[in-house]
Design the sequence.
């Protein structure tokens, strides 16, 4: 195992290039691949990941990014970590490409944690699901509508999420949309003219979000809600490596 780990550190990205080809050997290559993961400090295989999947978990979750250190601190992982759901951390450039042509392994779909349609409450956890507060749900729905009105075409939608625990907001990609890093690569290569509008997800349990909700019906607070909305959107963009449109305004 140690010899193979040393081999993988040198040649793993090259071997993964084979996953991008429509070859009968693709499954064998996947079996030979090793990945970083939130569950272990050591490299792991897909078979080992599948053996550790939680009850009710149907997908193999992954997150792509530039560096393993930044991946481990991503807000996108908070809800998964809280529920003990393992996520593969993919930081090689080739990872952005093969995950767009390899959709499953041994009957388990591969799914990026940046997707907006993930329901973590459907996966078994050690704690019972929280009773939904209808009044709070209505307040959050109203806040989503206000934020969507403020942010306009800079976002494709605003919605609550259970993917966050410590952070207030994050960006997400709609099902079938292009993931963050691949989109940036295509923009750099002049294959795309601009980034698409992302889904803006808010954490209804976060103090900032709850404070905004409480100020919704106070007309004197309208400017503050607008300022905080743009600030949170720019923070979410920075966390995903996206550019912010007005750096000077963000600093102010």
Sequence:
């Amino acid at each position: 195992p140690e010899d193979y780990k040393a081999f993988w550190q040198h040649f793993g990205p090259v071997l993964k290039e084979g996953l991008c080809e429509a070859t009968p050997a693709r499954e064998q290559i996947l079996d030979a691949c090793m990945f970083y993961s939130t569950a272990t400090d050591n490299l792991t295989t897909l078979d080992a990941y599948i053996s550790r999947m939680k009850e009710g978990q149907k997908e193999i979750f992954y997150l792509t990014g530039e560096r393993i250190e930044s991946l481990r601190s991503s807000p996108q992982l908070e809800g998964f970590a809280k529920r003990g759901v393992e996520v593969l951390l993919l930081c090689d450039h080739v990872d952005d490409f093969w995950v767009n042509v390899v959709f499953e392994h041994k009957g388990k779909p591969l799914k990026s944690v940046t997707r907006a349609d993930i329901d973590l409450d459907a996966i078994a956890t050690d704690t019972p699901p929280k009773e939904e507060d209808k009044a709070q749900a209505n307040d959050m729905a109203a806040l989503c509508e206000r934020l969507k009105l403020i942010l306009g075409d800079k976002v494709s939608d605003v919605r609550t999420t259970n993917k966050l625990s410590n952070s207030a907001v994050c960006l997400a990609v709609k099902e079938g949309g292009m993931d963050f890093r691949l989109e940036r690569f295509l923009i750099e290569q002049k294959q795309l003219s601009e980034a698409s509008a992302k889904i803006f997800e808010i954490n209804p349990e976060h103090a900032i979000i709850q404070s905004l909700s409480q100020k919704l019906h106070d007309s004197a607070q309208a400017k503050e809600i607008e300022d905080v909305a743009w600030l949170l959107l720019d923070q979410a963009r920075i966390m995903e490596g996206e550019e912010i449109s007005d750096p000077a305004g963000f600093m102010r």
